[in-house]
Amino acid sequence: MPAPIDRRTILNAAGVAGIASVAGLSACSSGSSSSSTGAAGNATAAGGAVSVAKADVPVGGGKIVGKVVVTQPVAGTFKAFSSTCTHEGCAVSSVADNKIKCACHNSYFDASTGAPVSGPAKTALPAKTATVSGDTISVA
Ligand code: FES
Q: Domain segments of the chain: what residues?
């Protein structure tokens, strides 16, 4: 016949289990996570210099290539900006209706000046120099 387990042994075992579960709970609570995104384009983006075909940049629209977004707010006028959103650093996602959009939190920027138009971003996208040569726009 096995030895009877007294009441104190049972309570001690339950206490240890209780502490273990509390410790397990606190270990599971973690802070927030963060992520970053990058953008890739079909045009050339090597060594910081970017080349985009003029034909790939529609009037009122634009082309995102790596760290740069090239726009054509008016026919024949090309602009370039950093494609890194000034809100929390996402890559901007699209250009339409003369606005550059960051889909992370729906900020919009003016495609002519880079200035914030709506959404949480309050700072303009930094401008870059776009140089047109033949059918190509180069951004340094
Ligand atoms: S990171 Fe672009 S809107 Fe928040």
A: 44-139
Overall CATH class of domain 44-139: mainly beta
Regarding the beta carbon of 86 and ligand 1, being less than 6 Å apart is answered no
**pLDDT tens profile 76-88:** 999 999 999 999 9
The C-alpha atoms of residue 12 and residue 25 are separated, in whole angstroms, by: 20
Q: Is the CB of 90 under 6 A from ligand 1?
A: yes
Query: Which atom of ligand 1 lies closest to the CA of 119?
Result: 3
